Amino acid sequence: MSLHLTPLVIVFTILATAFAALLSQMALAVFNDGVRPFLLDFYRGELARPQMTAIAFGLSAGFIFGLGVPVAFSSGVLNPWVLFLPSDILGILSPRKWIAPILGAAWGAVVVFGLSAATTAANSLPVNFLTAMQQMSTPILYLFSFFPTVAVTMQFGRLRGIITFVVSIFVMLITMKWLPSVFPGATTMAIGVILLVAFAVAEEVTRARSERQKAQALQATEAASPGAASAEEDDPPASASALASAADADDETSSIFAANAARLRRHAPYFMIMGLLLGVLVNTHMFAGGEATSYVIAKGQFANAAQIDFYRALGFIPLIVTTAVASGAFQIVGFTLIYPVAYLLPNPILAAIAGALLFGIEVFILSYIAKGIAALHTIRDASDNIRNAINLTLEVAILFGSLAAGNAMASGLGIAIVGGLYALNEVLGRPVVRMAAGPVGVIIAGIALNLLAYAHLFTPIPIK
Amino acid sequence: MATIYIGGVGKADLKRLLEQRRDPTLNVVVSNDLEAGQLLKRRSDAYYIGTCHTGAGGSLGALMAFLGRQRCHTFGRQARVSVEEVQKLLAAGIRAFGVSVDQINTVVPVLVEAIQSYQPPRS
After folding, report:
1. How far from chain centre, in Å, is Cα A256?
2. How many A/B residue pairs have CB atoms within 8 Å?
3. Name one Pfam family in it (chain B) (predicted).
4. Hey, what CATH topology would domain B3-117 get?
């Protein structure tokens, strides 16, 4: 496989990292969801810039080198970790506004030119591990379609989990048999998500009903025994004041939330520009939003990638919304809905318009979604479970894909090196994120096998 | 007896891990960041352990807004933690902890042990 970085990709990568760095400098947005909560104290001036930089670096470094770089290098597709985690740090680091875009642009240039140089070099080697990496997409696409099953089991237990599993398998079989033109993983995933949503809504309805009944029962007892009610009223004012202070605390927090949402709305034009740049970048299909989609986009399966990143967004939106209203800073990539939209749009101009509009809408509905999330427990839980389930299934899929890549490069020897490195990473306290441990193993195995090939200790086998 | 509220992506794993300790003095409540944030603001003997992939975003996002940064600490993706280290954090007034999901098994046992053995200064 080869990498064609068109001028459009190069220009928009550099523009996107430059502008993202500016947003981070102004404490308006960061990509790392972990850094965002700290920005509240940062723009209020309670946290100094050097301290804030140290926090951002500490929380991001592992993901840049342990996830972003290996995923980009092994897939040949840019990803948000490799572009926007560094732009977070560079922006926060910049003492003046004009420095941030320069540093951001420089990083964008390093990534696009570095990635294409590294890919060209890797392609000229006798053992081409980038071709071997193509093994990754099949396990990801098929295993990913079982994330709803995992999420249902986590949230609603064994019985409904098994039901979802069986239904999913049947849908996969039926699609393969009677709908040969449709990708079986797509329908399986869709039915799984529908079941998950159905279970969640049913749960939410029963919860609301039982709460209403409880309230009615309470009213009934109070009406039946006025003595008890008056006794309660005679209760020392302690409990009343405790309640009042609790209400104060809630009011205080909700006013912080409202102020933060207002701050974001005021800066909506900035986010719309970011949305525009991202829309074009994602539309080039040289940038993917997630670890799974990096390999899927690399294979040119844009519709599947869009579906995957849409479901992934369901897992991330509550997290992004909560951290955004709690801190007054947005996510560089918004609600991540720009990925599925821009993968599918036919041209960069439409993608640019869609990106700008999408980000504008997202910023304006932020506070409504925040209120909804706070009220709907089941939905929040479902979102956490979706993220967890996606991670679980992807870890399996990416490990399997990496072992398959090892197998493609050097059969048993490849499996041994990749699997061995994965196990080693586990006992070493996971310096590399689990999701990227396999791909890192493949890269290391690829380098080692090439060295062995030069030393005539290993005969390269053709990689399909 | 201290109550520990848990939340975030890894709360199910966290619950299982803490149940395995079979410790009757350990009071664990499965919660979430928005709920626990309000509870911790009112109670002084409660702690929160949040989990997410970074150890700070999903885990501590709302908590920082409720309690302020001074009362929150993230272990990030740090894999080794000592009881003394956590005791020091507790003495400094930290009540909410953020842990990365892939480090739950190594960090949380130490963290919980430290919380249980910690005697808050009488005020």
Report:
1. 26
2. 122
3. DUF2620
4. Ribose 5-phosphate Isomerase B; Chain: A, (3.40.1400)
